[in-house]
Amino acid sequence: MKLTAAITAVCFASASAFAPAITSQSSTSLYAGTPAFTGPSLDYTGGDDPNSSNYVKLSDALNDADIDRRKAQEAADAREHATQRRREERQKKIDYMVQMPDNTPAGTVDDFMFKEGVQSQLDKLDEDLVGLVPVKKRVKEIAALLVLDKMRRKLGFETSVPSLHLSFTGAPGTGKTTVAVRMGQILAKMGYSRRGHVVLATRDDLVGQYVGHTAPKTKEMIKKAMGGVLLVDEAYYLYNAANDRDYGQESIEILLNVMENNQDDLVVAVAGYKDRMDKFFSYIPGMASRIGNHIDFPDYSADELVEISMVMSRELEYDIHPNAYPVFKNYVEKRMELPFFSNARTVRNAMDRARMNAAIRTFEKFAIQGVNGGFCSIQDLKEISPEDFQVLLDDILYADTDKRIFA
């Protein structure tokens, strides 16, 4: 009995001794926040999450979107401020126009025509070109628009730059390049272009031979023409309907973009035969819609071509003998029936040949035959005789067919 009581006392004492330790450990675990288990933590520590890079990307995207929104808002505010300024300027102009007397002088049309040098360019056009009444009329109409537009600007009226891009249709030698030069000068005189020069371009100047070559060539020609006129001769060769991979399409797209966005600093004129140009415009409707002035150049008559020869002879200080004109007109009429006739260009070539015939005739007469001791007069050096043109006519009348087409 005493032994049993002793064992019980020892066990109770042992339990009492360990109790504080158990109680202390439990309290620490519950109130200090330290998990009692040793498994993986549920708290995000940042380093062991495989999606952490995605969180960074999302944050950057949100920041970029916020920046874009701020920029868009700033742009919208700037547009609103600009619109408000335009409204204020417009109102000032309206107030000015209301208060301005109706009889306020803007100057006479002649003042603008002569002071700006427009009339001198029109006079030169008349001197340079024989005939072509419809062409000259159209050029004068364009000049009238520019003059009146400048007068309106002087008084404060609303104005806008008209479409000055040009289309010239007609056969070779009908004066297209000459008109382009005069138009460039008129535009410069009126302040619609900085320089007024003309740059002539063909497909070879604009289109490359391999990928990546066309754009630099086209842009280089445009750069040369900036401030003036870019005249694209035989523009229909830029487009090849049979080959959708032709590099000319790239050149056309660049030209269209420039015609739309740089029309205040560049005038583009396209030229060529009328039927081919019409087909070209049907393939590229965007080109036709950007051109505000279509001018057709008719062929010259035989009498007009004879008159052109007179103008050329005066410029070169030659005198055509009165009896030589009927011979030359006969030559022109025959030549017009043959292939490769080029109007004024053919006349220029004929005049060059007539001058050569005159030189040969004069040289043989005075240098070889020794007429008048070899001394020739001023008139001998200036005159083109009937026989000088007769040589040209005989070449057409009696030469073989294959040779006649080049006469």
Automatic annotation (TrEMBL):
Record has ATP-binding as a keyword:
yes
Could you tell me which residue ranges the CbbX AAA lid domain spans? 324-389
Region spans: Disordered? 70-91
What are the alphabetically sorted keywords of the record?
ATP-binding, Nucleotide-binding, Signal
InterPro entries associated with the record:
AAA_lid_6, ATPase_AAA_core, CbxX/CfqX_mono, CbxX/CfxQ, CbxX/CfxQ_RuBisCO_ESX, P-loop_NTPase
Domain ATPase AAA-type core spans what residues?
168-297
Extract one GO molecular function annotation from the record.
Answer: ATP binding
Return the SUPFAM superfamilies for the record. P-loop containing nucleoside triphosphate hydrolases
Signal sequence range: 1-17
Pfam annotation, one family: AAA
Concerning its family, UniProt says: Belongs to the CbxX/CfxQ family.
- Protein's recorded name: AAA+ ATPase domain-containing protein
Which species expresses this protein natively? Eucampia antarctica
Q: What is the lineage of its organism?
A: Eukaryota, Sar, Stramenopiles, Ochrophyta, Bacillariophyta
